[in-house]
Design brief:
CATH architecture of the largest domain: Alpha-Beta Complex
Helix content: 40-55%
Bound molecules: guanosine-5'-monophosphate, manganese (II) ion
CATH superfamily of the largest domain: inorganic pyrophosphatase (n-terminal core)
Number of helices: 15
Number of domains: 2
Largest sheet: 6 strands, parallel
CATH topology of the largest domain: inorganic pyrophosphatase (n-terminal core)
Strand order of the largest sheet: 3-2-1-4-5-6
Order of helices and strands: HHEHEEHEHEEHHHHHEEHHEEHEEHH
Length: 357
Amino acid sequence: MNKPKLVLQLLSLEFVHLRIMKKIELNGIQDSLKSAKNICIIGHKNPDGDALGSTLALSHLLAKQGKNTVVIMPNSYPDFLNWMPGNDQILIYDKDAEKCEENLSGADLIFTLDFNHLDRTGRLGDFLKTLDKTFVMIDHHQSPDDYAKFQLVDTMVGSTCELIYDFIEVLDQKQSLDQDISTCLYTGIMTDSGSFRFPLTSSKTHRIIADLIDHGANNSKIHRDTFDNNSYSRLQLLGRALQNLKVIEALNTAYISLSQADLDEFNFKKGDTEGFVNYGLSLKGIKFAVIFIESKQENIIKISFRSKGDFDVNTFARKHYDGGGHKNAAGGKSNLALDETLIKFEEIIQQYKSDLL
Ligand code: 5GP
Ligand code: MN
């Protein structure tokens, strides 16, 4: 009676190993970890909940093994993400490049989490490219670059935090799961899955979440700290964004645009527009939603793309907007003025009529 169960368990353990890395890489990374003392862990520019949650969770785990760990972010991030355990120790390259470079130069191992091209770290990427170090990439985006000696990549997983959970499992470190690690991982899984509703959310995601709650993640508090932290001006800006929402019914497309003047009027702070794009997608029948946000400082229009179903916004963003991401969530930019960007967008999407119907 017990035998088939054991085989299944072995198979599923093997599956976890194979899913995220070749065994040989696992051995290599274990050796590198064993000999490493100083470890830097990096997230992408404009870090989101997954980038922060995964880097902090890994940092807590490795610190428990006696490593000196430093988490480095290319730039700062909004208040609704600045409460996770370990947040106070994060170094920001834009604010303290010297200290970041000092730590990176002294690192024995550098983890890059939740991105797969060094360019995704902005100016920090230029410095990283000059380093002769062993890099480990843990990520769930498509088309990874080849800067990392070890890659733990799975595009069918909804968040890097889930991959970190797998990584902890294959390293046989489940006993290290504590409230801090669980809180960080829970947050990244929650934010990258749109609170457990995006298509990649699996029964396994929920089993991981259950385990994280068992290890101290306070699901209700995490949700509150992340989502019930709005400022009055952010809600007013949301009002403006919804007023600016334009629907192109013939193409099942909806888009929002926010000019720099809109942002200034409502005292825009970094992160205030997070999630706005999803309102377009919540309209009945809409399959493709976009938000265009003017940045006078960067002199670009930052764009977020979201889709439901088969319309691949990763390919769309790569082809037309120097961007990328995932099939149903991607980003990019335009160097044209805001009004010209919108006119051009309306032209471009005409080619996609058959994909959007
Ligand atoms: P968001 O629209 O929330 O900024 O990003 C959605 C997804 O697209 C995220 O997975 C993010 O990493 C990716 N993404 C956003 N902007 C860019 C970009 O300019 N280039 C690439 N390659 N990916 C992006
Ligand atoms: Mn992610």
